[in-house]
């Protein structure tokens, strides 16, 4: 495995990996890109509170990675006579290169139809895989042409099997519901395969698949007649020595040797029993790839650096410092983690520092956080975290939005440290809850332009605080340019960190 330093130097154009170190890219041929749609709703469908929800969530995330890799295997097999070989695979996407031929488009369209048929029957249109190809003759990856072809392909998902010679195949839009019921595992209407748990066949397979993913370390796939993952007539199972390696964040939080439930993880939170959902996405990655002008070595290096950072490096950080975190998925250039609310905030700060180091301070990421009770629906809270990411943290970029506040990463470590200090004083009864509520109210007035907040807060501090607490609040909230603009975050953190109800 190439070190991050070598990958970073190659991506920057300071060093060139030899063809023996990466999949060779020819002077001419056809590039074929694969990309999944529908990943989020599929992965996040398991219902909290149902038996084994955490295990099925992990299984679904792994299933998407596995299917991505298996589609690439099928593509390599169908284009074997054209020397097809995988160039990279990361985060639900891959790139394969092969020799061009007069019929490559027809062969790709046939594989697309077979995939549409198989995925429609298996996942009822919830998961859709897209294939797009483009020829090249200059030794570079045809990035713009692939992008245009992929946009066109995504305009007609599953179109090849939803149409017939007479128009729309209307019978393909409806699935029979005879003797079907609502699955308690994923909430879908399906034929129940396990009556004791009242779950469908997909959830049964996810349950078994999740059990096989608790060992840690790299995971791989091997063919098995009864395997829980199927594609194009073949079934696969998790095997440590299988021929198809699947990169994933290997860490999982355990409780007595079993995957910890969300209720257990919430019990491990400081103060209030809240979980936090953390969504992370690297900034301006599309622009970074476009700036590489199709250079295959530099594109491979950047793709590989990102994927390894958001999978193996994340796993290493969790195993060493954050054992209570549950990685739903990581790879490509994004990450989704669930865990005790305070651990999530600490991890976000630590991963920001780690990622900056791995990328040589060339890349940044933004993050969104949503609080959740252990039985709130996973998809709903994940969408809330995504909204925090895209509508708040991504607006300035290189920021985190958490506890209702958007904070630039350059300031977050100091804000978090001050919030911990405030929480300790609140827990030690040096500061009362009434003052914290006053701070929130005055902070809101300050945001609206009311200049009286300063004198009103000064009065409250002089009247109600003494000693260390008085000095801290004055320094943090009344001194210009320190913590006041993020006072709402610090106060909410302190209140969450306190067990039980807020005190007067």
Number of helices: 17
How far apart, in Å, are the first and last alpha carbons?
57 Å
Largest sheet: 6 strands, mixed
Low-confidence stretches: none
Strand-residue proportion: 15-25%
What keywords describe this structure?
22 strands; 6-stranded mixed sheet; 17 helices; single chain; globular; 4-stranded antiparallel sheet; 504 residues; alpha+beta
Description of the molecule:
The chain is α+β, with helices and mostly antiparallel strands. The protein is 45% helix and 20% strand. It contains 17 helices and 22 strands. The protein has helices spanning 4-11, 39-43, 53-78, 104-123, 143-154, 159-162, 201-211, 262-267, 285-291, 296-321, 341-358, 378-393, 409-427, 433-447, 453-464, 467-478, 487-497, and strands at 29-37, 85-90, 93-98, 128-136, 163-164, 167-168, 181-182, 189-190, 192-194, 199-200, 219-223, 229-231, 234-238, 244-246, 254-255, 258-259, 275-282, 326-331, 334-340, 365-372, 399-402, 405-408. A six-stranded mixed β-sheet has the order 18-19-17-20-21-22. A four-stranded antiparallel β-sheet has the order 2-3-1-4, with helices on both faces. The model has no long low-confidence stretch (mean pLDDT 90).
Helix and strand arrangement:
Layout (H helix, E strand, L loop, with lengths): L3 H8 L17 E9 L1 H5 L9 H26 L6 E6 L2 E6 L5 H20 L4 E9 L6 H12 L4 H4 E2 L2 E2 L12 E2 L6 E2 L1 E3 L4 E2 H11 L7 E5 L5 E3 L2 E5 L5 E3 L7 E2 L2 E2 L2 H6 L7 E8 L2 H7 L4 H26 L4 E6 L2 E7 H18 L6 E8 L5 H16 L5 E4 L2 E4 H19 L5 H15 L5 H12 L2 H12 L8 H11 L7
Parallel strand pairs: 20-21
Antiparallel strand pairs: 1-3, 1-4, 2-3, 5-6, 7-8, 9-10, 11-13, 11-14, 12-13, 15-16, 17-19, 17-20, 18-19, 21-22
Helix pairs in contact: 1-10, 3-7, 10-11, 11-13, 13-17, 14-15, 14-17, 15-16
């Amino acid at each position: 495995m190439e070190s991050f330093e070598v990958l970073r130097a190659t991506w920057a154009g300071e060093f060139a990996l030899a063809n023996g170190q990466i999949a060779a890219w020819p002077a001419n041929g056809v590039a074929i890109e694969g990309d999944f749609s529908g990943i989020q709703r599929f992965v996040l469908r398991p219902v909290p509170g149902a038996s084994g929800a955490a295990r099925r969530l992990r299984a679904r995330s792994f299933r998407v990675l596995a299917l991505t890799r298996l589609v690439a295997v099928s593509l390599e097999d169908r284009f074997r006579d054209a020397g097809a070989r995988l160039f990279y695979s990361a985060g639900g996407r891959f790139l394969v290169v092969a020799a061009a031929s007069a019929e490559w488009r027809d062969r790709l369209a046939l594989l697309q139809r077979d995939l549409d048929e198989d995925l429609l029957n298996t996942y009822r249109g919830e998961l859709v895989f897209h294939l797009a190809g483009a020829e090249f003759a200059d030794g570079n990856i045809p990035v713009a042409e692939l992008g245009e072809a992929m946009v066109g392909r995504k305009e007609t998902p599953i179109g090849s099997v939803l149409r017939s010679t007479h128009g729309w195949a209307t019978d393909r839009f409806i699935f029979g519901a005879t003797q079907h019921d609502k699955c308690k595992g994923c909430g879908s209407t399906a034929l129940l395969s396990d009556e004791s748990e009242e779950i469908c066949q997909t959830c049964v397979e996810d349950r078994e698949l999740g059990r096989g993913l608790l060992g840690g370390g790299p995971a791989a796939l091997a063919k098995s007649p009864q395997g829980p993952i199927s594609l194009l007539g073949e079934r696969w199972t998790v095997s440590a020595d299988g021929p198809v390696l699947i990169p994933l964040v290997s860490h999982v939080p355990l409780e007595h040797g079993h995957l910890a439930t969300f209720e257990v993880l919430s019990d491990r939170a400081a103060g209030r029993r809240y979980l936090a959902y953390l969504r992370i996405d690297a900034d301006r990655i599309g622009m970074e790839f476009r700036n590489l002008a199709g250079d295959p070595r530099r594109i491979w290096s950047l793709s590989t650096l990102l994927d390894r950072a958001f999978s193996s490096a994340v796993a290493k950080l969790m195993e060493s410092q954050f054992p209570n975190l549950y990685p739903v998925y990581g790879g490509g250039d994004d990450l989704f983690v669930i865990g005790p609310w305070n651990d999530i905030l600490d991890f976000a700060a630590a991963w920001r520092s780690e990622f900056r180091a791995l990328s040589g301070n060339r890349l940044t990421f933004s993050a969104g956080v949503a609080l959740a009770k252990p039985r709130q629906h996973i998809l709903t809270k994940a969408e809330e975290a995504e909204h925090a990411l895209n509508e708040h943290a991504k607006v300035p970029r290189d920021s985190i939005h958490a506890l209702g506040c958007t904070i630039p990463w350059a300031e977050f470590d100091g804000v978090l440290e001050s919030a911990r200090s405030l929480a300790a004083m609140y827990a030690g009864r040096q500061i009362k809850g009434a003052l914290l509520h006053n701070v929130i109210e005055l902070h809101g007035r300050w945001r609206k332009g009311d200049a009286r907040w300063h004198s009103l807060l000064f009065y409250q501090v002089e009247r109600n605080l003494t000693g260390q607490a008085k000095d801290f609040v004055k320094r943090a909230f009344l001194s210009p340019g320190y913590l006041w603009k993020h006072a709402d975050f610090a106060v909410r953190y302190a209140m969450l960190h306190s067990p039980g109800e807020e005190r007067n």
